[in-house]
Amino acid sequence: MTEDEAYKVHIQYTFNAFCKVVIRHAAIDIILKLRRRWEREVSLDYLMNEKFVQLAEPEQLEEYLFTACGQTAVLYHAELAAALALLPEQTQEEIFRYYFLRQPQRVIGVHIGRTRSTAGRHIQLALKRLRRLMEGKRYE
Question: SUPFAM superfamilies recorded for this chain (predicted)?
Protein backbone atom coordinates (compact mmCIF):
# COMPACT_ATOMS: atom_id res chain seq x y z
CA MET A 1 0.00 0.00 0.00
CA THR A 2 1.39 3.32 -1.00
CA GLU A 3 1.61 6.32 1.24
CA ASP A 4 -1.19 8.01 -0.66
CA GLU A 5 -3.53 5.04 -0.26
CA ALA A 6 -2.68 4.73 3.44
CA TYR A 7 -3.52 8.41 3.91
CA LYS A 8 -6.89 7.95 2.12
CA VAL A 9 -7.70 4.98 4.36
CA HIS A 10 -6.74 7.01 7.42
CA ILE A 11 -8.99 9.89 6.29
CA GLN A 12 -11.86 7.43 5.67
CA TYR A 13 -11.50 5.90 9.17
CA THR A 14 -11.35 9.35 10.73
CA PHE A 15 -14.46 10.44 8.84
CA ASN A 16 -16.32 7.25 9.84
CA ALA A 17 -15.42 7.81 13.50
CA PHE A 18 -16.60 11.42 13.26
CA CYS A 19 -19.93 10.33 11.72
CA LYS A 20 -20.48 7.74 14.47
CA VAL A 21 -19.89 10.37 17.16
CA VAL A 22 -22.25 12.84 15.49
CA ILE A 23 -25.00 10.23 15.08
CA ARG A 24 -24.56 9.05 18.68
CA HIS A 25 -24.87 12.58 20.05
CA ALA A 26 -27.88 13.31 17.82
CA ALA A 27 -29.61 10.21 19.22
CA ILE A 28 -28.79 11.29 22.78
CA ASP A 29 -30.22 14.76 22.06
CA ILE A 30 -33.46 13.25 20.73
CA ILE A 31 -33.79 10.96 23.74
CA LEU A 32 -33.27 13.85 26.15
CA LYS A 33 -35.74 16.01 24.23
CA LEU A 34 -38.38 13.26 24.38
CA ARG A 35 -37.75 12.72 28.09
CA ARG A 36 -38.22 16.45 28.80
CA ARG A 37 -41.41 16.44 26.75
CA TRP A 38 -42.81 13.41 28.60
CA GLU A 39 -42.00 15.02 31.94
CA ARG A 40 -43.90 18.19 30.96
CA GLU A 41 -46.99 16.44 29.60
CA VAL A 42 -49.98 15.86 31.83
CA SER A 43 -51.98 12.84 30.83
CA LEU A 44 -55.76 12.90 30.51
CA ASP A 45 -55.65 9.53 32.25
CA TYR A 46 -54.12 11.30 35.25
CA LEU A 47 -57.10 13.64 35.33
CA MET A 48 -59.41 10.64 35.31
CA ASN A 49 -57.61 9.12 38.29
CA GLU A 50 -59.83 8.23 41.26
CA LYS A 51 -58.11 11.01 43.19
CA PHE A 52 -60.17 13.47 41.18
CA VAL A 53 -63.15 11.50 39.90
CA GLN A 54 -65.08 8.88 41.78
CA LEU A 55 -66.36 6.28 39.40
CA ALA A 56 -70.05 5.45 39.66
CA GLU A 57 -71.50 1.97 39.64
CA PRO A 58 -72.10 0.63 36.10
CA GLU A 59 -75.87 1.03 36.37
CA GLN A 60 -75.47 4.63 37.58
CA LEU A 61 -73.37 5.89 34.67
CA GLU A 62 -74.75 8.98 33.03
CA GLU A 63 -73.70 10.21 29.64
CA TYR A 64 -72.44 13.76 29.16
CA LEU A 65 -71.92 15.11 25.67
CA PHE A 66 -68.79 17.05 24.80
CA THR A 67 -69.08 18.83 21.47
CA ALA A 68 -66.17 20.46 19.66
CA CYS A 69 -65.06 20.74 16.03
CA GLY A 70 -68.60 19.88 14.94
CA GLN A 71 -68.33 16.42 16.50
CA THR A 72 -69.63 15.00 19.76
CA ALA A 73 -67.93 12.71 22.25
CA VAL A 74 -69.66 10.91 25.11
CA LEU A 75 -68.16 11.34 28.57
CA TYR A 76 -69.19 9.36 31.65
CA HIS A 77 -67.71 11.72 34.25
CA ALA A 78 -69.75 14.75 35.25
CA GLU A 79 -66.82 16.65 36.77
CA LEU A 80 -64.69 16.28 33.64
CA ALA A 81 -67.58 17.30 31.39
CA ALA A 82 -68.29 20.36 33.56
CA ALA A 83 -64.60 21.34 33.63
CA LEU A 84 -64.31 20.97 29.83
CA ALA A 85 -67.40 23.16 29.38
CA LEU A 86 -65.70 25.95 31.35
CA LEU A 87 -62.73 26.11 28.96
CA PRO A 88 -62.65 28.56 26.03
CA GLU A 89 -63.86 27.21 22.70
CA GLN A 90 -60.40 27.12 21.07
CA THR A 91 -58.99 25.23 24.05
CA GLN A 92 -61.88 22.75 23.87
CA GLU A 93 -61.10 22.18 20.20
CA GLU A 94 -57.42 21.60 20.92
CA ILE A 95 -58.24 19.06 23.65
CA PHE A 96 -60.84 17.37 21.43
CA ARG A 97 -58.48 17.13 18.48
CA TYR A 98 -55.57 15.78 20.55
CA TYR A 99 -57.37 13.28 22.78
CA PHE A 100 -60.52 12.30 20.91
CA LEU A 101 -59.51 12.64 17.26
CA ARG A 102 -55.89 11.63 18.04
CA GLN A 103 -54.44 14.34 15.82
CA PRO A 104 -50.74 15.12 16.24
CA GLN A 105 -49.71 18.49 17.61
CA ARG A 106 -48.37 19.48 14.20
CA VAL A 107 -51.86 19.17 12.64
CA ILE A 108 -53.45 21.04 15.55
CA GLY A 109 -50.86 23.78 15.16
CA VAL A 110 -51.67 24.15 11.47
CA HIS A 111 -55.39 24.38 12.30
CA ILE A 112 -54.92 27.17 14.87
CA GLY A 113 -52.25 28.94 12.80
CA ARG A 114 -49.39 28.30 15.22
CA THR A 115 -46.33 26.06 15.43
CA ARG A 116 -46.35 22.51 16.72
CA SER A 117 -44.65 23.50 19.94
CA THR A 118 -47.18 26.27 20.58
CA ALA A 119 -50.04 23.81 20.08
CA GLY A 120 -48.36 21.41 22.51
CA ARG A 121 -47.96 24.17 25.05
CA HIS A 122 -51.65 25.13 24.67
CA ILE A 123 -52.66 21.52 25.33
CA GLN A 124 -50.34 21.31 28.33
CA LEU A 125 -51.76 24.52 29.81
CA ALA A 126 -55.32 23.36 29.13
CA LEU A 127 -54.70 20.12 31.01
CA LYS A 128 -53.24 22.01 33.97
CA ARG A 129 -56.29 24.27 33.96
CA LEU A 130 -58.59 21.25 33.82
CA ARG A 131 -56.78 19.73 36.77
CA ARG A 132 -57.18 22.94 38.79
CA LEU A 133 -60.86 23.14 37.90
CA MET A 134 -61.45 19.53 38.89
CA GLU A 135 -59.47 19.87 42.12
CA GLY A 136 -61.38 23.03 42.99
CA LYS A 137 -64.75 21.35 42.53
CA ARG A 138 -63.57 18.34 44.48
CA TYR A 139 -62.73 20.32 47.63
CA GLU A 140 -65.48 22.97 47.58
Answer: Sigma3 and sigma4 domains of RNA polymerase sigma factors
